[in-house]
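Q: What structure does this chain adopt?
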Amino acid sequence: MKTILEAIRERRLYLDGGLGSMLQAAGLPEGLLPDLWSIQNPEAVQSVHRQYLEAGCRLITTNTFGTTPGKLESYGVTCGEVMTAAVANVRAAMDQAGVDDGYVMADIGPTGKLLKPYGDLDFEDAVAAFAEPVRAAAAAGADAILIETMSDLYEMKAAVVAAKENCGLPIFASLIFDATGKLLTGGSPRAAVALLEGLGVDVFGINCGLGPKEMAPVFEAFWGDSSTPLLLQPNAGLPRSEGGKAVYDVDPADYARQMLPLAPMATVMGGCCGTTPAHLKALIDATREIPLPEITQKDVCFISSYCQTVALDGRTPVVIGERINPTGKKKLQAALREGDTGYVLNEALTQEEAGSHILDVNVGLPGLDEPEVLTRTMEAIQEVTALPLQLDTSNPEAMERALRRYNGKALVNSVNGKEESLNTILPLVKKYGGGLVCLALDDDGIPETVEGRVAIAEKIIRRAEALGIPRRELLVDGLTMPVSAGGENANVTLGTLKAAKAMGVKTALGVSNVSFGLPKRELLNQAFFTMALQSGLDGAIINPKSEAMMGAYRAYCALTGLDDQCQTYMEAFRDAAPAVAPAPKTTGGEVTLHQAVCKGLKEAAAAQAKAQADSGREILDIINGELVPALDEVGKGFEKGTLFLPQLLMSAEAAKEAFQVLKDYLPPAENAGEPQIILATVKGDIHDIGKNIVKVLLESYRFRVLDLGKDVAPETIVETAREKQIPLVGLSALMTTTAPYMEETIRQLRAAGLPCKIVVGGAVITQDYADSIGADHYAPDAMETVHYAQTLLDV
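A:
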């Protein structure tokens, strides 16, 4: 039989549908982790698999969505036991259905936790958690790994890395987007494409959360950017409650009709919550004859953070801020040696405000533990800015550690023509993904001619492509040499740029070295920069705080038609203001408390809170005059879509640091109190990401929260609400199979006659569902819970 990757090149293959909702219909006890039925009731699981096979599905997912160590721990079974049974159930169903061309998809869902720094799960712990079911799937004979329903690109990266390191199976990956086209942590479709293609995932796409019509814009965005086969698994519409069960209103015929316009873009199709074998049969009958999509290779290098993506398209140049590099910068050198993160973050933020698209991060200093410092610095910068980063080091160990933990797809600076560099850096880029700066030098040094530099660039390109790194990911650096050391140096660099563009690759260049040793350096830098842009420079490594350099960049874009109606140019120079307005510093006590909270600067927020309290300012005035307005400002940005969840959480954490300081200045009566709000993930559901986010934000607004945790029985919630006289209860559910316990909890709270209000939310919850189960309020996001609490409670 052909491998699964061979098969999808010949025909469209169909995944199955809503396994969880089908198992519910087959009698799965409420609150039981569905995965356990693979062992406890294999006949029922095999029956569901067989029904999908008989409908025409040939990619059958194992009943292992929750099979990670943390979720199975309390049940006394291992990932190996559950996965082995689950794979065997799919094989048995194929035998029963007489299917000999089906494939077993080892299903891996999210951990239910948010990764650091926004949650408490470390990246390496996440990798380890996913590694166990991956190894079990390979040992049990699965045909592919399917990582699904991921709402965070960082967690998706951890799962993919685990799959790559622990098996040789093809990797399929699927994400869950909301109705605004964003992931829970703010990731966009383009950021997802950047990460997943960089990691080398074989097939990726979208599942769950939305019906086909609602999912269409996100899927179309994937199609426009990707060079990889796509998969699509919508729900059968949006859920509502009926008789204590979650039901979906899109019937099989309508599901097939809604999927028809998307079929020409999808190599793999299927369904998610609420899609039965009848839905899949209707889909297959309607789309079977539609030709497979032609997968075109897009000539764009995407560099991304957790949510923001920069497109190096060979046409519009981008600015790479060069200031986080200790070469010749005594203050930065001192900050790195002393561990002064605030100084480094100030450099990051001021470069962002000055107009950088990407930030270069270099911490190379003698005597420093560069692997440790680069990784720590990178992670600190990613906490406060969404800009993508360029990881800049000649230390392979430092590059691997930072690249592995980077949240997104980084720009790697750099590889060169030396064998040692090729043999160490290229495999790292192949494994973790990344755009790659290619220096035109080798063991013989930097050639003095264009031809010599091009020859080295060609060698690097050949070696990269031989390893499977596409040409679109490569940026040739022609190497800027001082004109003071040779009159033709600038011309050779510019000639190398032109030659690289003719070879079909992108280009990068550190500009300012051209003027080394000469007076009035900025004049030379500005002129050379403009010449480089005209010669095809894509990634300009410059000082974005230089008005002359940014002026040259903006003028070039305006004059070449790259700045639509000169909007960016006019914005920069409106009212004859300087092109670059310096941002407030974050060290030395000069940043305000309001600014520190808005930027998510925890240390600065704590320091400013103490300074203000020590100055004699009223504590409540500090809280109400600076902290709460800052949180409101960030919250409004989140609601408008200009800020994303990680930024919201980091601001909340900064506010909490300030509150912790200010609490010591408050009288005991103002510093304590009974809890006002209960939060709980309902019985049977062991995912607590959403609940934990809500807790962080509520506490940052000084609400007193009692967190009952996850998998909480209705009786526990009722008894606690009665005992503590709680005025507001917040309930969360991620899984379709556990949503009925939300309704049961509300029923018991009402039956107990408790006067508390109830707010609900979670991935499977909608306004209609919340209304149908008797909730007082539906919160589509964490900030809405805060707003609702503000209408009910005093702090």
